[in-house]
Amino acid sequence: MAKEKSVFFCKECGYESSKWMGQCPGCRAWNTFAEEKVAVKKKQNVKSFEKIEAKKITEVLETQDERILTHIDELDRVLGGGIVKGSLVLVGGDPGIGKSTLLLQMCSHLVKDNRKLLYVSGEESLSQIMMRGKRLGAYDERLMLLCDNDLDNIEEKVEAYASEVVIIDSIQTMISSDIDNAPGSVTQVREVTSRLLLLAKRRNTAVFIVGHVTKEGTVAGPRTLEHMVDSVLYFEGDESSGFRVLRAVKNRFGSTNEIGVFNMTGEGLEEVKNPSELFLSGRPVDVPGSVVIATVEGSRSVLVELQALVADSSFNMPRRTAVGVDYNRVNLLIAVLEKRAGIFLSNCDCYVNIAGGLRVNDPSADLGIVMAIAGSYKNRSLPSGMAILGEIGLAGEIRGISSVGRRVNEALKMGFNSVVLPSSNMNSKELKNIKGIELIPVSNINEALKLL
């Protein structure tokens, strides 16, 4: 028989320990350890398994992953060109962000292609899903619904219906009869995900699982959950606004740099074909501290507005706030401004924000951050038709950036008449055939600040 032992898990990140601790060594959260009983099974006899011989890499046959198009272009782009059969995809995001809405809309397109689908919900009743499906256009007799949280029964139904795509909403509500722990516990989530992975690979069925997100922004449950699945998709956005960004954090079948942009409406999620137009809508004109930068997300460039506000501080230690950009990067650029440009901000509060809710990790935003902070400090604005590109080093130099042609073309398409870019990019072959827009090269931040 299996022996039982007690193990302590962190509810935030899944860190495992043999004893209780006040602070988790993994995520540094306090009072998050919970005790769970884990059954330790005896090791099976290795001889009972069929022996598998190793193969030379040259003897392995090349196979192309068969993909299923969802006909939602933004979702297909993030997935790498469609759903790969036999893949396990984790969709995470804040409650109410639109995870279930997106997956139900995906079902409405797949059933029209005569795909066999099974939508499993452990949180909503069948009537609730039916009413939402009517609103989203997923009211089709070929879409099978199941309201259950018993994994044994779910596996039987997948076999009986020969489902090509299965959606589990959500992984925290599913239970395996092999384990006595409560639903949503670390042990249950790990065991259920492991069995769903075997189901996907054995039947060549694509499985989507919905995962709740903790206050730290990570999927609730063990961190190994993200390592077990083939793809991890995160839904980002502010609930108060309609913008939604779908980002691939992990993808074994495509790029992790692609994003999908959606707009939440009363009839579901609408695709945004031109994200630059969406993020620049309502942009103020000739306002100090407002600049436009061009970031590259996967295969396309997106223009976003970057705002900065510098005000006299009433505290001994001035405040620094960054939304949408790296906080430590902003502090580094403020130090470069003080040392290399003589703009002293030690007695000023600095606030930096990316309008629209997008998060930018592109180093080409450095020059835009510096120009926005300096413009707000000096109360001077840049021309409304100017875009800013460039990475800044600690010596104050403007370093070259990648995909400069794509960024300049996007600015030209959106009606901008000038672009500030690093001098080292002026000899790029990507810029030779671009006409109709002024290119302003700069080599250091002092040259760039003269534009103010």
Order of neighbouring strands in the sheet with most strands: 8-7-9-10-6-11-12-13-14
- pLDDT < 50 stretches: 42-49
Helical/strand content category = alpha/beta
Helix content: 25-40%
User: Alpha-carbon distance between the termini?
Assistant: 76 Å
Radius of gyration using CA atoms only: 26 Å
Number of strands: 23
Shape: globular
Overall pLDDT: 87
What's the number of helices?
A: 11
Main β-sheet description: 9 strands, mixed
Share of residues in strands: 25-35%
Concise summary:
With 452 residues, the chain is of the alpha/beta class. Helices cover 25% and strands 28% of the residues.
Task: Provide structural commentary.
With 452 residues, the chain is an alpha/beta fold. Helices cover 25% and strands 28% of the residues. The chain has helices at residues 73-79, 99-112, 126-136, 151-161, 186-203, 224-228, 275-280, 327-341, 366-378, 404-413, 445-449, and strands at 3-10, 16-17, 33-40, 67-68, 83-84, 88-93, 117-121, 143-147, 165-169, 206-212, 231-236, 243-251, 259-265, 268-271, 290-297, 300-312, 320-323, 348-354, 386-388, 391-392, 398-399, 418-422, 438-442. The strands form 5 sheets. It has a 9-stranded mixed β-sheet, sandwiched between helices. It has a 7-stranded mixed β-sheet with strand order 17-18-16-15-19-22-23. The chain starts with a strand and ends with a helix. The model is unreliable at 42-49 (pLDDT under 50).
